[in-house]
Write a structure and sequence with these properties.
98 residues; mainly alpha; 78% helix; 0% strand; elongated
Length: 98
């Protein structure tokens, strides 16, 4: 395999990792926004986003014990979004250097 083909393959992999990390963080950010704007939870789209965000942030959604529910949502789901972004982009940078 030629060197340029290897570089192109790792760049494509890095791009895919970056896009996936961005999408995961966007889902979490969208749920935070929907929660803060008091979106109708009976709506199918809102329910889908909430379910996906809860699954993605399963490890962090009840991590904090603020008195206000909105602060728990922002901190818990926001932490997960930041972790996905940092880890995803760091992994993509590592792939590009390879």
């Amino acid at each position: 395999m030629s060197h340029s083909r290897t570089i192109r393959g790792t760049n494509q992999a890095a791009t895919i990792v970056t896009v996936v990390a961005d999408i995961l963080a966007a889902v979490l950010g969208l749920w935070i926004l929907m929660y803060l704007l008091d979106a109708n939870r009976a709506n199918d789209l809102v329910g889908f986003i909430h379910g996906a965000a809860r699954w993605l942030a399963g490890w962090s959604h009840d991590l904090f014990t603020f008195d206000d529910a909105w602060a728990r949502v922002v901190a818990g789901y926001g932490l997960a979004a930041v972790v996905y972004l940092v880890v995803g982009h760091a992994l993509a940078d590592r792939l590009r250097r390879y």
